[in-house]
UniProtKB/TrEMBL annotation:
Organism of origin: Actinomadura syzygii
Stored SUPFAM superfamilies: Lamin A/C globular tail domain (SSF74853)
InterPro entries found in the cross-reference section: Lamin_tail_dom, Lamin_tail_dom_sf
One Pfam family hit: LTD
Limits of the LTD domain: 1-121
Listed name of the protein: Lamin tail domain-containing protein
């Protein structure tokens, strides 16, 4: 008996901007130039509480109480800022995404992979 494939997550990694513009000075503006865009492909809102965004190293951002509206994006920035319906902030003082290649994982609260996106050492962003 074949095991049914897991349905694709309605919330997916759409783009990763892993090499922030300019020199990597670790200023908050530079840290916030590094981000991951998640997109809700569904027409209905999705609760992301407990969903995690993680890199290969294990640096992990966990969503608190947060709902993404249908057919909308949310950007998760590495640095500090004020969270809103479309912008979330990790609050880190170090970069997360490696310019030389990395993988972004979107994980369900159970730990299973909802989506992932990998890139190599060229360019500054990746559409997934």
């Amino acid at each position: 008996m074949a095991v049914p494939a897991e349905a694709a997550s309605p919330v997916q990694i759409y783009r990763v901007y892993y090499d922030s513009p300019g020199k990597d000075t670790r200023s908050n503006a530079s840290l916030n130039g590094e981000w991951v865009q998640l997109f809700n492909t569904s027409t209905s809102s999705k609760n992301l509480k407990g969903v995690k965004l993680r890199d290969k190293t294990g640096y992990t951002y966990t969503f608190g109480t947060f709902t993404i509206k249908g057919r909308k994006s949310v950007y998760v920035h590495t640095g500090k800022g004020s969270n809103s319906a479309t912008q979330r902030y990790w609050g880190r003082s170090q970069y997360v995404w490696n310019n030389t290649g990395d993988t972004a994982y979107l994980l369900y609260p159970s730990g299973s992979v909802a989506d992932k996106c990998s890139w190599g050492s060229s360019g500054s962003s990746k559409y997934c």
